[in-house]
Amino acid sequence: QAQLVESGGGLAQPGDSLRLSCAASGRIFSSHIMGWFRQAPGKVREFVAALKWSDGRTYYADPVKGRFTISRGRPNFTVYLEMNNLNTDDAAVYYCARTTQNGSRRTDDYGAWGQGTQVTVSS
After folding, report:
1. Taking residues 68-72, what's their average pLDDT?
2. CA-to-CA distance for 51 and 32, rounded, in angstroms?
3. CB-based burial of residue 1 (10 Å sphere; 0-12 exposed, 13-18 middle, 19+ buried)?
4. CA atoms within 13 A on the CB side of 10
5. Contact present, 3 and 112 (Cβ < 8 Å)
6. Residue 47 scores a pLDDT above 80
């Protein structure tokens, strides 16, 4: 089973960009959908974006649509989240996870969670 390790978080100012990475220690199969979620203090974990490994199709939560881009790296099994025009609402711990449920945005459908990477947005 793949283990997922996130990196790339840090401190940003409003309007800045960050790129998060999620490295899988095992294989990512064509049936997998790789997702990014985030959790701010006192809030539930929420869906951010996901990518279907077989064909690269992507889908996004409305708050990040047009600002964030999820992509994949090959041949290494890495998933990226490019975050542009950050605002204070984007501050959270960002998690990478995997599912085989096509189109799912539900945390319960995802397994193999990483440990998370902190994104802080402050002026």
Report:
1. 96
2. 9
3. exposed
4. 11
5. yes
6. yes
